[in-house]
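Dear colleague,

Thank you for sharing your sequence with our group. We've completed the structure prediction you requested, and as agreed, I am returning the results in plain text so they can be pasted directly into your records. Please verify that the sequence below matches your submission; if there's any discrepancy, let me know and we will rerun it promptly.
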Amino acid sequence: MTKWLNWFAILSIAIILLVSLFAVGKTFSGDFVASEDVGAEGISADVDFPVVVGVKGGMLEVAQVTGRRSFPKSTDPVILGQAVPYCRERASWTAPYRITYRLRLGDQWTLRYRDGKLFAQVPELEPALPVAFDSRGLETGAKESCWFVPDLGTRERAMKSISPELAKIAKNKKTKDFAREAARHTVMQFLRTWTMRQTSYADVAPDAPIRVIFPGE
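Please find the predicted structure tokens below.
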């Protein structure tokens, strides 16, 4: 009987020690245990498997319009609920920009070969947005305001207006009309090279006239 009591006492002490060690390890595991990511075994980290997928369509860059434009802003301070135009804050930025026009390739193109001429009906010019502008060429204009009026943030608002204003210019019909002839010439060169590689247009002469027709023409 005494022997069994001794074994029971030893077993109880062992269980208590194990529970205590588990509790202590859980408490201090954050200090003594950490983790580190291990790379996938069997595959070198510098191995790449590029896959090229052909897609129908795409965009063809056909013309660019470049220039410089000033982007001004003005703000009237409001004192006791009334705007004070005499202390109007004015600020501006001047930025060089480049508008790129593209044509969408794919089913929207209609080609016809008639009387020795190739006629191509192409989609509308689409500007690449946001319009690119050279931040290194930004110039700030002189800021005007009354000396006793705190800064109204007009210069910051003028900076933020550059991209939206350039998008409006790029979508404007006048700007598109300005770029259309250069785009037409690019499309003609593209079609001349393209038709020479197509078996279905083998009867098209290398110097055949090409007429590019935009929507509305």
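Summary note from our side: The chain is about 35% helix and 25% strand.

Kind regards,
the structure core
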